[in-house]
Amino acid sequence: MSDGRDLGVVVIGRNEGERLARCFASLGRPAQLVYVDSGSTDGSVALARARGISVVELDMDRPFTAARARNAGLDRLDELGAPSFVQFVDGDCEVNADWLQTGLSFLRAHPDVVAVAGRVRERFPEATIYNAQCDREWNTPVGETKAVGGIAMMRFAAVRAAGNFNPTLIAGEEPELCVRLRQAGGRIWRIEAEMVLHDAAMTRFSQYWKRSRRGGYAFAQGAFLHGAPPERHWVAETRRALLWGAILPACIVGGAVILSPWALALAMIYPAQVLRIARRGEGLTFAALLTVGKFAEALGVLEFHLRRLIDRPSGLIEYRKS
Question: What pTM was estimated for this model as a whole?
């Protein structure tokens, strides 16, 4: 547990049940703790209030986003007395007992660093291949980096000066904020310290598909906002999604219809891609999952641009219903 009186914690959640109880218990008693609820119906608000936690209930007449929830938490912390640092936590996470002090010590020792994150592990990576894939995604290199995820410790004043999270983003709001933090001169770091156990609770392919589709939507939206040089934010990811998930399939089907049925043989490029990824040490099953996920990502990219053209933003794309 941290002994820092200059630390505020913002927990966001919606129908997290026992996961939220574990999250609260893991945080100990930081100086300022705020829980922001996005329309839970499982008693999450009552649980937080019973623990003496300051609660913000988002207006259900406006679309929920994680960015909006985190901003509401920042506003409440401002009301309570703005801290020097803020730890953002999702309600499906259990915070490591040493993390808050570790993160504080790092930020205090590195005044030019505005955001730091440690290791995220899946609680049950062996339960399903989808949980295992999440666990692999969390295993990112340590050191200075371009972005951290939504579970991170940041300098409160730096986040406020950057304009907070962008509430219009349904996903990818953390890397987008990090773009603005870096443009303001801040540095972002990942360190080799255990931070949280995350509970993705993905048991079905449909959940993985939705999560990948949401990722594609975030890629496209991020590239639209910050895709120009020199940042080129998520431009490569967007292009890969479109290439593998939309352009190649269209060429294969179009070639078979217009030129010759033999054009369908070009579809063998996908098994070849699976083998190529597998040779990098991913394993055949994971390689196949990543390749299939590109189709969902492409749908997300196309959905973003279609909705942008008709001026109708997307609501949340939730892969887990609690």
Answer: 0.91
The C-alpha atoms of residue 268 and residue 245 are separated, in whole angstroms, by: 14
By the 10 Å C-beta count (0-12 exposed, 13-18 middle, 19+ buried), 261 is classed as exposed
CA distance 322 to 309: 32
Domains annotated for the chain, with CATH where assigned, are 7-203 (3.90.550.10), 222-309 (no CATH)
Rounded to the nearest angstrom, the gap between the alpha carbon of residue 263 and the centroid of all alpha carbons in its chain is 39
pLDDT beyond 80 at 305: yes
Q: Minimum mean pLDDT among 4-18, 40-54, 137-151, 286-300: which range?
A: 4-18
Beta bridge partners of 86: 8, 154
CA-CA-CA-CA torsion sign (310, 231, 183, 198): positive
Q: How far apart are CA 125 and CA 136, in angstroms?
A: 9
For the chain, the straight-line distance linking the first and the last C-alpha, in angstroms and rounded, comes to 29
Question: What gap in Å lies between CA 207 and CA 289, rounded to an integer?
Answer: 13
Q: Which residues contact 222 (CB under 8 A, 6 or more apart)?
A: 169, 172, 175, 176, 233, 234
Tell me: the pLDDT tens digits for 7-20?
999 999 999 989 99
pLDDT in tens, 96-136: 999 999 999 999 999 999 999 999 999 999 999 999 999 99
